[in-house]
Amino acid sequence: MASRHASAQMDFAVVADKDGYVNVRQRPGADKPVKDKLYNGDVVFVMGGEGNSDWWEIDYSRKKDDNGNGYVHKSRLKMIAGMPAGKATYKSLDSLVLQLGNIKVVIVRIPFVAARHKLHYSNQRQLDRIDGLDFWGTDGGLPQTAYKAITIITGKKEYKLPAAALQSLFNPSLHMVAIHEDAAAERLYVSSYNSDGAGGYTVLWCIEHGKYLFRRAFYGF
User: Looking at 64-156, which runs of residues are DSSP E strands?
Assistant: First the structure.
């Protein structure tokens, strides 16, 4: 996949600044108020630019699914889509295998069984919490599917992402999944655009030194 760093397309990026951090501005421009600070290695979702501006609108988070929004200069970001990418080597109705060098990622999904979960509905009879938590993947209806497992295989080593990494993520897609490697940082990124229509979202998992580091989820489209 070609680098997208030349234009502000909707995609994931990682902060990479010579100063070690970047200021998040309330509006585009170096003279605009600073609302937050992000550090090298933080992942953001690029929402787009202001016309031909070099300032890109981003969604970001330092904690799981607790998101903020602002603007950063594009020179402070490295697009993940521009990193070496893997390819799908196997796909079935509910499983996908992607390969990148000696790294293999196996994704398996299962049907969502409502009876196995605690469901909470709003006064408008819309589903608003599952197992006591906010969730991704529908706009008030029952999910159809859920993640069963994401497994990283490197040589003879096999590592499953912990349950917390998959929690509250529903209706996973096996069609819009990508893996990218930042070899210098010893990071593997696994990303997916998941949707049942109005409940669409995008999610990225970061695996560093062979272990799960964090996930970031955004309403990316």
Answer: 66-73, 77-79, 87-91, 95-100, 103-111, 119-121, 127-130, 145-154
The tokens of 190 are what?
A: 């696994």
Phi-psi region at 65: left, alpha or beta (left = phi > 0; alpha = psi -120 to 50) = left
Distinct helix (H) and strand (E) counts, the chain: 1, 18
Give the residue from 190, 191, 192, 197 showing the smallest Cα distance to 173: 192
Quote the pTM value: 0.91
Distance, in Å, from the CA atom of 51 to the CA atom of 190, rounded to the nearest integer, reads 30
In the block, tokens 């859920």 appear at 146
* Long-range contact pairs involving 157-165 (C-beta distance under 8 Å, separation at least 24): 157/210, 159/207, 159/210, 159/211, 159/212, 161/205, 161/207, 161/212, 162/212, 165/205, 165/212, 165/215
From residue 219, alpha-carbon distances to 48, 60, 69, 131, 158 in Å are: 13, 11, 12, 21, 31
Is beta strand 11-15 parallel, antiparallel or unpaired with respect to 21-25?
A: unpaired
pLDDT tens sequence across 75-97: 999 999 999 999 999 999 999 99
Give pLDDT, residue 1: 27
CA angle 168, 137, 24 (to 5 degrees): 80
Measured CA to CA, the distance from residue 179 to residue 207 in angstroms comes to 11
